[in-house]
Description:
Number of helices: 9
Radius of gyration: 19 Å
Largest sheet: 2 strands, antiparallel
Shape: globular
Distance between the termini: 49 Å
Helix content: 55-70%
Order of helices and strands: HHHHHHHHHEE
Number of strands: 2
Structural class: mainly alpha
Oligomer: single chain
Amino acid sequence: xPAALPLKDPVKVGQLLRRRLRELKRxxxxxxxxxxxxxxxxxxxxxxxxxxxxxxxxxxxEVCRQVLELCAPERQRVLQRRFARPEGxxxxxxxxxxxLLVAQGFVNRKLxxxxxxxxxxVREGCTYLQARMRLLEFLDADAASLTPRDCDEFLRPRITTxxxxxxxxxxxxxxx
Length: 176
């Protein structure tokens, strides 16, 4: 295999994986060889992706609305007032991030069940690889990159309700 040239512009790791999986139409081997990257490119891309996520700031307003719908109505009003403050972005990231971690735990277990994933792919009318890539993309998501589609598909079906102690940021999450 020829030596890989260093990347000019770092790209998201998920994009590299999707591009290479489409070329091969199969699942990965050792990452740098699999992605045809120079040995230092993968860590560089991961660092660039993390830095971009930290700089991105607040989660999408539609995502926050959907997340707030899952908590008690009286708590929603308090949280909306808190979110409107300048320091509200941090609270939004904490809440969305923790709910995301819970949903990612479910998705991780779903990803390990190959037979169940194949059956779900047939039920949804897509290929096994497409279903697997969708799960992997969700596992790559963070609070700032979460989309309303991710909420509809992964968060809302698994979380019944949640509450947060605004002093300690301790959360109580009730699962379905």
